[in-house]
Write a structure and sequence with these properties.
177 residues, alpha/beta, five-stranded parallel β-sheet, 7 helices, globular
């Protein structure tokens, strides 16, 4: 990326075209929404993200935009680059558990929806601890329209299914969905 930026951008252009085509195919197959998920993007600072990633990710979102399906943009460890993720695209911006939901949303902008952001390791804790952390995420969302309750990353393999079910039921009860 740093040593051969022209090659990097050529490679990322190819990836953006492939991912864009794949997401279009998913929409044509009937999905209701698509998500661009980047597990490593949070290792970059804002200037490097702007130079090396943002233009390519924007191309993906621009490719899908005419299809009219909601798009989600999520990266791990992105607290420092949330405004740049918004700029790259996505109707919904995901926030992992490292940034409090209300802080992340303020940095993204309340005119954009947000997804997140319970720490997935909490699903290994006793249920009272899990529900207290769930309450904190919901309190930080403050009932605003546009919050999609979710984990701040994926479910760990050893997570008890009963804990996932309990959180889902609890969120529905608390938000009257």
């Amino acid at each position: 990326m740093y040593g051969h930026p022209a090659a990097w951008h050529g490679f990322c252009d190819l990836l953006a075209d492939l991912v864009g085509d794949y997401l279009v195919a998913q929409v044509e197959a009937g999905v209701d929404a698509v998500q661009v998920f980047d597990s490593w993007v949070g290792v970059l600072n804002a200037p490097d993200y702007r130079e090396f990633i943002l233009p390519h990710t924007r191309r993906i979102f621009e490719r899908v935009a005419p299809l009219g399906v909601p798009t989600i943009h999520f990266g791990v460890g992105t607290g420092a680059i949330l405004p740049e993720l918004r700029e790259a695209g996505g109707d919904v911006i995901g926030a992992d558990w490292r940034t409090p939901l209300d802080d992340a949303w303020a940095r993204i902008g309340f005119d954009r929806a947000i997804q997140g952001n319970l720490d997935p390791t909490l699903l290994l804790a006793p249920l009272d601890r899990i529900l207290a952390a769930t309450d904190e995420v919901l309190e930080r969302a403050a009932g605003r329209v546009g919050h999609i309750f979710n984990l701040g990353h994926g479910i760990l393999p050893m997570t008890p299914v009963e804990h996932v079910q309990a959180v889902a039921q609890y969120v529905h009860q608390q938000t009257h969905i």
